[in-house]
Amino acid sequence: MALLEELHKTTQHLSKHRYPHLDDAQILQVDDLSVRYESGAALEGVSFSLNAGQRLAIVGPNGAGKSTLLQVIAGVLPPTSGQVQIFGNAPGGHICIAYVPQRSQVDWSFPVTVSDVVMMGRVGQLGLFRNPAKRDWQLVNRALDVVSLTHLAKRQISQLSGGQQQRMFIARALAQEAELMLMDEPLTGLDVNSQEQIFTILDQLKAQNVTVLISLHDLQMAAQRFDEVLLINKRMLGIGEPALILSPENLLAAYGGHLHLVPTSDGILALGDTCCDGEHEHA
Amino acid sequence: MLEFILEPLNYAFMVRGLIAAVLVGVVSAVVGTYIVLRGMAFFGDALAHAILPGIAVGYLVGGGAREPLFWWALATAILSSLGIGAISRNTQIKEDTAIGIVFAGMFALGVALISTVGNYTVDLAHFLFGDVLGVRNADLWLIAVFGGFVLLAILAFYKEFMVLSFDPILAATLRLPVRLLDFLILILIAVTIVVSLQTVGVALMVAMLVTPAATAYLLTRRLPVMMALAASIASISGVIGLYISYYLSIASGSAIVLTCTAIFGLVWGIRSLVRVNL
């Protein structure tokens, strides 16, 4: 069975055939999604949907299943039950989904240059035995331009700063011509300037009608910079405007005792789980 | 000096040995680049040892003839690499443990089979440590054809292998046939090991796979350059090693491997002194 599936993927990779995008279908629909590992449940009964061009922040504590959710949506990890649909079809037949990895999960000493990595985004559309053509280089150069990395294109990837590394992966997603970008903690560990550069790029993506799903540690940032948040801790605790969703009750349900709620003049301030670098959940 | 270089070339076995050492050096170093980057050194070492029973059966069946050895070794190598992959995928045993089980079990079986023959120590030594000066024209053809096949496959799947080695999740989201490509890499390693068998033998094989590639990794952070450097270092080591073996009368396989190791040590030493930042 597995062999047949692989052969099918090979023929797809050769012929460049993909699932069609159904016009009336939403770009992303998640129905009653559950993932269970041997160690226990990672996600339980998550359902939501996104329209093209929407930007959603996924927030929740460490181990809440944020990375797991992104990987299931990307079609990299099979769900235990429930389903994910991209434009009306299972994610496995789409190459319009880009997964932007956490920086900590990348081998930065790998012998590739920045433009090599961005060109990797083209490999799915190139297919076997085809070399990059003029159009592929144009897309790569334009993507590098959007994230302001043109001058570093020939550098080895270990020579980039954290913010530049993150922007390189966004450029790769652009070169892939992704319509749905899944970003795993893109702002973690970056200084304020680098974070602002990422936000500028996110606004450009929105203008281009790219749908973006971002997992975040920082509750304050989610509340201030995003129109919509999804709060999870294995179970789904709410989706919608941050002011409604990040309510004290919901946050207590998500974070339990790890969160301090401080009353202030304009409401309640949540001091939360924003500390813990390097302590990422693993799929 | 010229005399020093030319004299060994009067012997046909030396010329064949040199050609074999250079061909094997290029193929194993290029494949070794992926082994180094993907952290598969233990797998490579184990696979080399695991083909011993195949060689033993070929040896017993053919009554000492060389012809069947290559094919038996090739079949065993491919089966072992697929077996290791299947065990680690389908059980809860970690991959390095699975490799350890298959590797030691197969190697023991190989030694047991060969020990049933009378003059087994001499033959066993050839399988373990190589016999590059015993290479015949037919062997050279096999090395060239199968080595060429490995290099062509790497060229054809270059961008897919690069994506798979750097970022497996990207490979999955680009819907590349990840498992098939993984198997293909295992098979290329298996073929490379069989092709290199006569030069360094199963016990020293891992050195040909990782040492030149690791040396190149100290010198560059460009994948194509790394492959070219590794291939050059390996072929030069093959030639120097054979000359050392000729003049100092030491075993050819160990002379080649020691040369590789010395070049690695030299590059490492110079790099620590100069402190190049790659």
Structural summary, described in words:
The complex is a heterodimer of chains A (283) and B (278). With 283 residues, chain A is α/β, with parallel strands linked by helices. In chain A, 34% of the residues lie in helices and 24% in strands. In chain A, the strands form three sheets. In chain A, strands 5-6-7-3-8-9 form a six-stranded mixed beta sheet, sandwiched between helices. In chain A, strand 6, helix 7 and strand 7 form a beta-alpha-beta unit. The longest helix of chain A has 16 residues. Chain A is globular, with a radius of gyration of 19 Å. The C terminus of chain A is likely disordered. The longest helix of chain B has 42 residues. In chain B, helix 3 runs parallel beside helix 6. Chain B is built from 13 helices and no strands. Chain B has one domain: ABC transporter involved in vitamin B12 uptake, BtuC (Orthogonal Bundle). Chain B is mainly alpha-helical. In chain B, 83% of the residues lie in helices and 0% in strands. Chains A and B meet through helix 1, strand 5, helix 3 and helix 4 of A and helix 9, helix 10, helix 11 and helix 12 of B.
Describe the structure using short key phrases.
heterodimer; A: 283 residues; alpha/beta; six-stranded mixed beta sheet; three-stranded antiparallel beta sheet; 10 helices; 11 strands; 34% helix; 24% strand; disordered C terminus; B: 278 residues; mainly alpha; ABC transporter involved in vitamin B12 uptake, BtuC; 83% helix; globular
Instruction: Report the principal-axis shape of chain B.
Output: globular
CATH class placement of chain B: Mainly Alpha
Indicate how many domains the architecture of chain B comprises: 1
How many runs of DSSP E, i.e. beta strands of chain B?
A: 0
N to C succession of SSEs of chain A: HEEEHEEHHHHEHEHEEHHEE
Q: State the helicity of chain B in percent bands.
A: over 70%
Q: Beta fraction of the residues of chain A?
A: 15-25%
CATH architecture of chain B: Orthogonal Bundle
By DSSP (H or I, 4+ residues per run), the number of helices of chain B equals 13
Major pleated sheet of chain A: 6 strands, mixed
As residue ranges, the low-confidence spans of chain B are none
| Strand coverage percent of chain B | under 5%
Characterize the quaternary organization of these chains: heterodimer
The description of the largest β-sheet of chain B is:
none
Low-confidence stretches of chain A: 274-283
The run of helices and strands of chain B is HHHHHHHHHHHHH
Biggest interface goes to: A-B, 41 and 29 residues
Shape of chain A: globular
User: What distance lies between the first and last C-alpha atoms of chain A, to the nearest angstrom?
Assistant: 24 Å
Structure class of chain A: alpha/beta
Radius of gyration of chain B: 19 Å
